[in-house]
Amino acid sequence: MARLFVAVAALALLATACGETSSDAAKDDGKDGKGSGSSGSYDGKGIGLAYDIGGQGDQSFNDAAHAGYERARKDFGIGGVDMEPGDGESSADKVQRIEQLARQGYDPVIGVGFIYAPAIQEVAKKFPDTTFGIVDDNTVKAGNVADLVFHEEQGSYLAGVAAAKATKADHVGFIGGVDIPIIHKFEAGFVQGVKSVDPKIKIEKRYLTEKPEEGGFASPDKGQDAASGQLEAGADVLYHAAGLSGQGVIQEVGSQRKWAIGVDSDQYKQKALAKYRKYILGSALKDVGGAVYDLAGSVVKGKPMTGTQRYDLRSGRVGFADSNPAYRDMKEVVAAVEQAKRDIVDGKVEVSARP
Known about the structure:
- The protein has 355 residues and is α/β, with parallel strands linked by helices.
- It folds into two domains: 8-151 and 288-311, Response regulator (Rossmann fold, 3-Layer(aba) Sandwich), CATH 3.40.50; 152-286 and 315-345, Rossmann fold.
- It has helices at residues 8-18, 61-76, 91-103, 117-126, 152-166, 181-197, 220-232, 245-255, 288-300, 325-328, 331-345, and strands at 47-50, 80-83, 109-111, 132-135, 145-150, 171-178, 202-209, 237-241, 259-264, 280-286, 307-311, 318-321.
- The chain has a six-stranded parallel sheet with strand order 2-1-3-4-5-11, with helices on both faces. Strands 7-6-8-9-10-12 form a six-stranded mixed sheet, with helices on both faces.
């Protein structure tokens, strides 16, 4: 699966030991394999990106990161390599993946997902001149690490408002991939948004697994089964925060001609979901790609971002996608979502991060 044009031997070793390589280290200026960058002063090899569970192709979280990775490579004229997680891999595998990327000269090195926190905490100490980024975790404290975190509850609140205004049954549902704190934020915002419209609306809630390694973020069949159950119970608008498993949610909802609300990426635009897109009311956006792009740009420009970088509605890195023309035609729904967004940005509404 490796598609490498530089550092073939080294990256082949990395792919064997730590998961698959899914992209090439694109541009090489001929000077020790390092890309020049748009400024001419950047001397790293490009972006080293390590995906979360589900990998590239999840139409959601990881694909959002990939979009930012590709845009940064193009805009800044740098190379890069992106790595898939291995099946059933250990914490040591993650450490090895992150360390190999840093050792080979990639800068920044970014772990997509909180599962990389221990690895980045360990490896960042060994490579003080390399900038590291981690998405969805703010526990790694080091002078060369940027914690890229989001107010997911705010986008989820907008999803809740949209669901509450769109439901005809006064009955909606939430499906989380894994029963962990980061996904609790999605549930909390969604429930609060629904209740802000009508406290009497019934809300189904379901987590697919207790632990990430049990497949909660990577099993469309689990998502489909959960969606089937909630629809059978009477819900007619379902919101998922389940990564690749969310494909199954959307497919089941679409097949029953109900409304689905996507997450992280604008799932209405995802090719793999094109068959069902007219049933995707909208998506709670979490611009992981923008965060990846921001960090890469800061490194290329010689002013690396470090510390906690928190994105919210005000920054534009969290929001609600309105690509579906059917959604835009629902004037009452659109107006309610826009008003909710203004209220959050203006501080009139504070969204809880806890259910």
